[in-house]
């Protein structure tokens, strides 16, 4: 089990788990924050920063970093950890790809992260909208590097992934989210090995695209289970691992079982590096897209250094 900070009830049972000091973040108020919010509203764009109630929104939006969530703000799944609304989504916005590109241009982004809700209602799961967004970005801001964070495209993953890989994003991210034992309760609509296969498929189709995946900690996973997830990712040749603390967005979402200490996050990071990931981000406030631009630059440099070492042998 991870390191825990429980508060015990008088009977000695863990009554609730207190949010430790290292999780607290400042309220989101700054000129940059307000400008980012206005731009998203003006271009009719949703962000996962808001929809997922991300704790880093104050920091990221102040620096004009936002993760755009395409294909609407209503998801066809109901994962126990996620704050995004569930229901029947609206029709796809055909202007959205250009609006995303306009946002990247106006914010002067060197690196952009695009994600989406799950769209099990669409024949291609929404893959063609990802492709259109990548194409609009390449036309409008050709120097911006593109990271996409996709759903699992359940039952259509091969064709959907192939279409997106052909559009050539720089980074393809798909999160495993948790250890396989917890899937039935945490991610009931998904299959662990299908998600792993998706990551494997990206690398098989185009080894030059960086692959990335992440897990949330604090959901009751065991340490050795986390190590096994790392091994599974490495066997799928995943380049970049992110690990962050799960936070319960509302009382109706799954509870935090434990708060993993910053020291334990560092220990996980050391193990992950030893297992061969090119890049590892591991801290309580790490999220898939947190510091994504800086991490991408480091990962690209790490790959170049690795290739140079191999060539010198
Ligand atoms: S970490 Fe990602 S989701 Fe959270 S505020 Fe920053 S860009 Fe948005």
UniProtKB/TrEMBL annotation:
Keywords: 4Fe-4S, Cytoplasm, Iron, Iron-sulfur, Metal-binding, S-adenosyl-L-methionine, Transferase. It comes from the Bacteria. Residues 61-278 form the Radical SAM core domain. Its main location: cytoplasm. SUPFAM superfamilies: Radical SAM enzymes (SSF102114). Pfam families: LIAS_N, Radical_SAM. [4Fe-4S] cluster 2 binds at residues 75, 79, 82. InterPro entries: Aldolase_TIM, Elp3/MiaA/NifB-like_rSAM, LIAS_N, Lipoyl_synth, rSAM, rSAM_sf. [4Fe-4S] cluster 1 binds at residues 49, 54, 60, 289. The keyword 4Fe-4S applies. It catalyses: [[Fe-S] cluster scaffold protein carrying a second [4Fe-4S](2+) cluster] + N(6)-octanoyl-L-lysyl-[protein] + 2 oxidized [2Fe-2S]-[ferredoxin] + 2 S-adenosyl-L-methionine + 4 H(+) = [[Fe-S] cluster scaffold protein] + N(6)-[(R)-dihydrolipoyl]-L-lysyl-[protein] + 4 Fe(3+) + 2 hydrogen sulfide + 2 5'-deoxyadenosine + 2 L-methionine + 2 reduced [2Fe-2S]-[ferredoxin]. HAMAP family: Lipoyl_synth. Belongs to the radical SAM superfamily. Lipoyl synthase family. PANTHER family: LIPOYL SYNTHASE, LIPOYL SYNTHASE, MITOCHONDRIAL. This is Lipoyl synthase. It comes from Blastomonas aquatica. The gene is lipA.
């Amino acid at each position: 089990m991870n390191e825990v900070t429980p508060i015990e009830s008088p009977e000695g049972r863990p009554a609730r788990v207190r949010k430790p000091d290292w999780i607290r973040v400042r309220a989101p108020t700054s000129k940059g924050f307000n400008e980012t919010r206005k731009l998203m509203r003006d271009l009719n764009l949703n962000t996962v920063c808001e929809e997922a109630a991300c704790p880093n929104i104050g920091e990221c939006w102040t620096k004009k970093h936002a993760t755009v969530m395409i294909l609407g703000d209503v998801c066809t799944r109901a994962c126990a950890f996620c704050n995004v609304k569930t229901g029947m989504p609206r029709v796809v916005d055909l202007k959205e790809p250009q609006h995303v590109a306009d946002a990247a241009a106006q914010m002067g982004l060197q690196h952009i992260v695009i994600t989406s809700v799950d769209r099990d209602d669409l024949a291609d799961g929404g893959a063609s909208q990802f492709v259109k967004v990548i194409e609009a970005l390449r036309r409008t801001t050709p120097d911006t590097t593109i990271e996409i964070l996709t759903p699992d495209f359940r039952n259509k993953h091969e064709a959907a992934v192939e279409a997106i890989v052909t559009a050539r994003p720089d980074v393809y991210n798909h999160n495993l989210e948790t250890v396989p034992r917890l899937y039935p309760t945490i991610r009931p609509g998904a299959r662990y090995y299908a998600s792993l296969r998706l990551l494997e498929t990206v690398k098989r189709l185009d080894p030059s695209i960086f692959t990335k995946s992440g897990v949330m900690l604090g959901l009751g996973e065991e340490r050795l289970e986390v190590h096994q997830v790392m091994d599974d990712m490495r066997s799928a040749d995943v380049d970049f691992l992110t690990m962050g603390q799960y936070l319960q967005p509302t009382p109706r979402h799954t509870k935090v079982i434990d708060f993993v200490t910053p020291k334990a996050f560092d220990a996980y990071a050391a193990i992950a590096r030893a297992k061969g990931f090119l890049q590892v981000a591991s801290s309580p406030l790490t999220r898939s897209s947190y510091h994504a631009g800086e991490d991408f630059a480091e990962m690209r440099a790490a790959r170049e250094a690795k290739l140079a070492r191999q060539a010198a042998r």
